[in-house]
Amino acid sequence: MRKLFGTDGIRAVAGEAPLDRKTIFAVGVALAHHVARAGEQPRVILGMDTRESSEWIAATITAGLRKGGASVESAGVITTPAIAYLTRSHGFSAGIVISASHNPWQDNGIKVFGPDGYKLPDATELAIEDEIFKQLANNHIETADDEAAPAVEESDRAEYVRSLLAAVDGLSLDGKRIVIDCANGAASSVAPQLFAGLGGEVRIRNASPDGRNINVDCGATKPEVVAKYVIEDKADIGITFDGDADRAMFADENGRVINGDAVMLLAARDLQERGLLHDNTVVATTMSNMGLEAALKRSGIRMLRAPVGDKYVLQQMQETKASLGGEQSGHILFTGRSTTGDGLLTALLLLDIVHRSGKSLAELTADLKTFPQVIVNVKVREKVPLESIQSIVSTIRDAETALLDSGRVVIRYSGTEALARVMIEAEDESAMRHHADAIASAIRSELGV
Fold first, then answer.
1. Is 101 a catalytic residue?
2. What is the per-residue pLDDT across 273-320, written as a single tens digit (0 to 9) for each?
3. Full set of structural domains in the chain with CATH
4. Is 116 one of the annotated binding-site residues?
5. Could you tell me whether strands 71-77 and 107-113 are parallel, antiparallel, or unpaired per DSSP bridges?
């Protein structure tokens, strides 16, 4: 079982284990050793988001990578999917992103992509962890001066932008007013350039990062903010990204939030209409609403559910050869288009669907009727298996028995934060909230901070 890597890399408070300098250096050494090939020096490309800790973490891991024998190139502040793209297109041995995605500015993280541009499999992460722990235990990690990698930022960004625009050749925003929330994160360095040549009126918000304002009252975890901007600016569509722009959420012209479920519905129908939806199948997760499943079924589309985490969605997509998959939170995966969730690509493809349809975003999503759903996050001091605590098990069982076929209960730990997530959806909203509160109280009583 992995101890450092969660569902999306290593993530913690910057400066505290496992994101202390010694461990970060060890990660660099271990990764360099892992990607080394006989007779070849490993080449690694590195990018980061806008947190104030990103630069020293990048410099520390660069020192470790070089200690392990790798050469390192920096793309500077850039989105996570851009690093995945550049890793693959330029034949790097690995790609690294210093980011904690949607987390607060005090947190940070290390995401790793293999030479194919995909996130590392669990087994590979476990093997890297083993070497990290061995080095730390045996004091094999020496102190070293942090090192900045040589940067080629502008050319990397420009190439990535060209690749995105190539995916929507012919897209025009003429006659449209679009408002974009960059979350004061990595999208701030790419979105203005990307949307500059598409016509229409594009208004960029929250694109002035100061190291501590990433995701603060903005971004994909607070899509109601961009929805408010849409109303204020009388815009046609609002788009909002998280800190590293690997996901996107939207708002229609009425200021209604459009989440990843709705995006998957529109994309699935569009691909189906063009004969590009393999086996009429979409891969979602356990968190996607029952309303999405019902809407897809009306269009003759089957929905499969994977565990939460875009890497697990991708794994099931590869197994079933599905053309489309994603998460309610806005990670959307398009086979052949990208190797990981890409908020900027998702935004362009959604705008292209709207453009070609001649309809508004509200019209295109009008028939998606979602079940009432609530998610309660409970801060926990440790992630003990929930099935081992009888009081929690019995409370969950009571909810499942009461809801039967009229709802769903999904309880899981966050893969990136010290949280237990209680998700319930049901036709009866009062019953939904009652059972969500009961389960959250049981978890809080046993494991709460």
1. yes
2. 999 999 999 999 988 998 999 899 999 999 999 998 888 999 999 999
3. 5-152 (3.40.120.10), 157-249 (3.40.120.10), 258-364 (3.40.120.10), 373-447 (3.30.310.50)
4. no
5. unpaired
